[in-house]
């Protein structure tokens, strides 16, 4: 019996992605990579290996940084309201893309290097990739990252519980089991602009690189930090703040926070031993799509509906480029690929591999755990916290006074 049911609802990830089909293989390939949702039986047109992906992301990082600096200079020099508005909007987009290229160095390249996915699993090469990627982003050093991610997060007895470092961080920030969705959104809004959160997050990054790392790494990171700080003298304080401080510090932390808050069901209690479905239920796919308008509308309503969809879809793509970078749209499959007996060593193609598992019968019901859009992903996590068994167990019974 197959679990791959036909998707007929207009707002499902499958139906939306099917309506975006162009029939032009290179275009359909790019759309799949941007949205995270492949077409049934779709094969990648571009064969991109992790090593090539690292080179591409490095070039994009340099180019985006140069564009961000240029747009910040244009903004500072703007003399008209129109120029100010255009430069501000363009700079904001550039900042989001820049922080996404920084984040993909950690949660994409360093992450899979820790998992040994480069150079056929060669340990030395993977360690070098992990160090380079995390130094560029000034992210957690690979040794600490392996301890948190491999030894804890990926252990079934820890995954999603308060012993999971990611869940523990969210709990410390005030995201608690049993809170309502509205309360959780208020905590999110407050945290995104909280100086204490950003100071704590930056301090953790600096400690991992300047205190807890080997001496050679401390020297390299210190040199990189000195270069970033001294660029304030070359660029001017305002341009430096817009092009360096905001992306590398503030937006980086916010991207990490939103990534965690859309990723898994946190503080969900202990997993039943051997229950693969319960394990799978703690993850989902975050498809970068906005619900599409209904077909066969009158001309004026259709124009309005498609205009609204275009704006919303741009927002989804910006979230994809700045938060759910790399394989994170289908990060559920990173945890489940072994159960599906599908390889993910070439993680850059993972959207196609995940769809292949669905096409083969979808034993783990992957297609049923695809949230469409960023807010749907937030709501999925928040509902999990609201109804967490940890919260239910903590509530007093009716017999208690």
Description:
With 401 residues, the chain is mostly helical. It has 2 domains: 160 residues, no CATH class; 213 residues, no CATH class. The chain is 64% helix and 1% strand. The chain has a two-stranded parallel sheet. The radius of gyration is 22 Å and the shape is globular. The termini are far apart.
In short:
The chain has 401 residues and is mainly α. The chain has 17 helices and two strands. Helix 3 (50-77) runs antiparallel to helix 4, helix 4 packs antiparallel against helix 5 and helix 9 (195-210) crosses helix 11 (237-260).
Count, helices: 17
Distance between the termini: 50 Å
The helix content is 55-70%
Reading the helices and strands in chain order gives: HHHHHHHHHHHHEHHHEHH
> What is the number of independent domains?
2
Would you tell me the structural class of the helices and strands?
Answer: mainly alpha
Shape: globular
Mean pLDDT: 92
Strand content: under 5%
**Which quaternary structure do these chains form?**
single chain
Tell me the Rg in angstroms. 22 Å
Sheet with the most strands? Answer: 2 strands, parallel
Strand order of the largest sheet: 1-2
Low-pLDDT segments:
1-9, 397-401
Q: Tell me how many strands there are.
A: 2
């Amino acid at each position: 019996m197959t679990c791959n049911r036909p998707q007929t609802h207009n707002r499902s990830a499958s139906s939306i992605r099917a309506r975006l089909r162009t029939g032009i293989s290179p275009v359909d390939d790019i759309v799949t990579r941007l949205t995270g949702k492949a077409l049934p039986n779709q094969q990648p047109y571009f064969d991109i290996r992790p090593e090539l992906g690292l080179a591409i992301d490095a070039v994009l990082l340099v180019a985006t940084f140069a564009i961000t600096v240029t747009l910040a200079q244009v903004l500072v020099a703007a003399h008209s309201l129109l120029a100010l508005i255009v430069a501000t909007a363009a700079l904001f987009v550039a900042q989001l893309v820049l922080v996404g290229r920084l984040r993909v160095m950690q949660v994409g390249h360093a992450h899979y290097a820790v998992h040994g996915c480069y150079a056929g699993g060669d340990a030395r090469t993977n360690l070098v990739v992990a160090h380079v990627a995390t130094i560029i982003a000034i992210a957690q050093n690979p040794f600490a990252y392996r301890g948190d991610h491999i030894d804890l997060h990926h252990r079934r007895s820890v995954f999603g519980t308060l012993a999971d470092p990611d869940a523990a961080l969210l709990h410390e920030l005030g995201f608690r089991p049993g809170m309502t969705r509205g309360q959780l959104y208020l905590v999110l809004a407050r945290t995104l602009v909280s100086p204490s959160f950003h100071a704590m997050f930056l301090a953790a990054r600096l400690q991992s690189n300047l205190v807890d790392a080997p001496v050679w790494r401390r020297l390299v990171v210190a040199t990189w930090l000195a270069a970033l700080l001294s660029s304030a003298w070359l660029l001017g304080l305002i341009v430096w703040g817009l092009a360096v401080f905001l992306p590398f510090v503030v937006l980086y932390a916010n991207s990490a926070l939103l990534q965690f808050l859309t990723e898994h069901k946190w503080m969900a209690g202990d997993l039943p031993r051997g229950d693969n479905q319960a394990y799978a239920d703690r993850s989902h796919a975050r498809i970068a799509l906005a619900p599409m308008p209904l077909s066969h509308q009158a001309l004026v309503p259709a124009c309005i509906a498609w205009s609204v969809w275009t704006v919303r879809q741009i927002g989804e793509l910006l979230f994809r480029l700045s938060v759910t970078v790399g394989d994170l749209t289908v990060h559920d499959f990173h945890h489940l690929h072994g159960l599906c007996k599908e390889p993910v060593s070439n993680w850059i193609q993972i959207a196609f591999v995940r769809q292949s598992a669905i096409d083969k019968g979808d034993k783990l019901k992957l297609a049923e755990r695809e949230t469409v859009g960023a807010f749907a992903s937030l709501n999925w996590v928040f509902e999990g916290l609201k109804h967490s068994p940890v919260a239910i167990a903590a509530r007093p019974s009716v017999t208690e006074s």
